[in-house]
Amino acid sequence: xxxxKLQRVIxxxxxxxxxxxxxxxxxxxxxxxxxxxxxxxxxxxxxxxxLAANVRDKVKQAGGQVISxxxxxxxxxxxxxxxxxxxxxxxPAVRDYYRLEELWGDKPVRLKSAADRAQTAKKPxxxxxxxxxxxxxxxxxxxxxxxxxxxxxx
Length: 154
What we know:
This protein has helices at 3-16, 45-61, 92-98, 100-104, 114-134; strands at residues 20-26, 36-41, 68-70, 77-81, 85-90, 108-109. The protein is an alpha+beta fold.
């Protein structure tokens, strides 16, 4: 699966279960093991496990491969290994303590959230309507043309 599609599936799956502070980092130049690291926060053991399960399920549905899921028994820090991407889902205290963003945060990947993508998709039509509403309804004036001077025959 293409890395961009994979990261989109991961972020969408995390957003579906209301993950907080989702960050995606491009790690191509830092390691050969994987191309992306995704870090997200869950507010409880139950939510971190649900986030990891949703990522696993959505990636499988999209045709991706799940290598392993670690930490699911405790739920304070769950790691989902997807081969080209590794997803860390942590509770706030664990995330603050380990600060993985400092390790992998060289090249953050900017992704639009599902809400931002939906808003952008609606924007062109809304912008057209708004522009039409601002335009005054005036009739077009005919353009006056000057008669071309005829060369005199001498």
